[in-house]
């Protein structure tokens, strides 16, 4: 698989949604634009254009209220990739905030309603040598008002709009965060070029880990245009500090399957204060007869986490709430992880600085607060 980034400078138009007559990219002709950066948020683009002041100073954040009812139109052009026979191309958005309608070359290709996850669209038939991509982001505040609230629902007085929108709840206001109901393409955009035969999905999980012994499963799925699967197999190779393993997994009747691994003298992963955070680099190769079709490399930690709970019954037997790692009781020292920024396109630049503070405090566990976004790979890689 090959990736082509569409990050960088885009053009942004914005106007009150209630009075807007824009329904299609063709309607944008003559509409004034400002420069926008992707990944980014509209507030940052307005700041760079000198339209608003930094909301983190004085009462500037209250002046963002008028923009909550605006709609936002992103535009950019890009050259289409040259595809080999059988290849396909997907347009991938790693973060769209939030209610988006997407057109490519004037054709509607999809809509999204979730800020927190990635969205992907097959554009093989629409992509040409020169392409125009347009995204409309609707006002989540206005759209949420169309939803009827159930009597059993409850919320704070200032963030009822968040009840029916898949958006970070704190953005409507919280005791730890200002109200900035943002919009934007807040994570990267890219094209993915896929081959006819390639690894589609791969998932590892530990089955047991104790002493110096570990067992884990690999679950896999691949796609292919070959009608006959005879001759396909997957080869796994892993290593960690000199400890290596290798195994071939045959393919029988389906393009999905699994295989298990048993390792002696394994390098186990441990939380801080209990041992090394050992990580295996595991490469999976997809072979067809004597031809290497695809390869993927992952980093995994072999560890078994258990939560031991027993009921509280008597003073003599007060019960137990205990976390074990690889069979060893862990004294958990942790903290609550809340949003790193009210404007989330800036999160990834703050990961290392903030997570170093947890290390400095001697923490070995972090609770990810539920009113936040799902953190990106850099966050979990640091924690691993």
Give a structural overview:
The chain is mostly beta strands and about 375 residues long. It has four helices and 24 strands. The protein has helices at about 40-50, 140-145, 350-360, 375-384; strands at about 1-5, 10-15, 35-40, 70-80, 90-95, 95, 100-105, 105-115, 120, 130-135, 185, 190-195, 200-210, 215-225, 230-240, 245-250, 255-265, 280-290, 290-300, 305-310, 320-325, 330, 335, 365-370. It has a six-stranded antiparallel β-sheet, covered by helices on one side. A four-stranded antiparallel β-sheet has the order 1-12-5-9, with no helix packed on it.
- Give me the number of helical elements: 4
Largest sheet, order of strands side by side? 3-2-4-10-7-8
Overall strand count:
24
Radius of gyration: 25 Å
Give the N-to-C terminal Cα separation.
26 Å
Strand content: 35-45%
Can you summarize the main beta sheet? 6 strands, antiparallel
Structural class: mainly beta
Shape descriptor: globular
């Amino acid at each position: 698989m090959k990736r082509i980034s569409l990050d960088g400078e885009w053009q942004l138009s914005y106007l009150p949604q209630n009075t807007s007559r824009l329904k299609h990219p063709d309607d944008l002709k003559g509409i004034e634009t400002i420069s926008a950066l992707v990944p980014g948020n509209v507030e940052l683009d307005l700041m760079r254009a000198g339209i608003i002041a930094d909301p983190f100073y004085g009462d500037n954040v209250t002046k963002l209220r008028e923009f909550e009812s605006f709609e936002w139109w992103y535009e950019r052009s890009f050259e289409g990739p040259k595809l080999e026979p059988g290849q396909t191309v997907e347009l991938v958005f790693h973060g769209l905030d939030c209610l988006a309608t997407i057109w490519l070359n004037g054709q509607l290709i999809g809509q999204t309603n979730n800020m927190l996850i990635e969205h992907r669209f097959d554009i093989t038939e629409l992509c040409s040598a020169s392409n125009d991509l347009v995204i409309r982001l609707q006002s989540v505040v206005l759209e949420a008002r169309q939803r009827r609230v159930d009597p059993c629902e409850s919320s704070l007085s200032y963030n009822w709009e968040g009840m029916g929108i898949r958006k970070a709840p704190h953005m409507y206001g919280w005791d730890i965060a200002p109200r900035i109901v943002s919009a934007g393409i807040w994570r990267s955009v890219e094209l993915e070029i896929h081959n006819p035969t390639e690894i589609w999905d791969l998932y590892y999980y530990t089955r047991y880990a104790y002493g110096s012994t570990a067992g884990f499963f690999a679950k896999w799925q691949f796609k292919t245009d070959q009608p006959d699967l005879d001759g396909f197999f997957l080869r796994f190779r892993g290593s960690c500090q000199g400890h290596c393993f290798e195994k071939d997994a045959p393919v029988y009747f389906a393009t999905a399957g699994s295989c298990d691994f048993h390792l002696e003298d394994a390098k186990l992963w441990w939380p801080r204060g209990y041992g090394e955070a050992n990580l295996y680099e595991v490469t999976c190769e997809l072979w067809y007869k004597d031809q290497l079709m695809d390869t993927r490399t992952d980093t995994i930690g072999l560890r078994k986490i258990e939560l031991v709970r027993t009921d509280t019954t008597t003073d003599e037997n007060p019960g137990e709430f205990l976390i074990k790692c690889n069979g060893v009781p862990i004294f958990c020292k942790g903290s609550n992880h809340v949003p790193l920024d009210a404007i989330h396109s800036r999160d990834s630049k703050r990961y290392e600085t903030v997570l170093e503070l947890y290390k400095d405090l001697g923490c070995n566990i972090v609770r990810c607060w539920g009113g936040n976004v799902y953190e990106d790979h850099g966050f979990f890689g640091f924690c691993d």
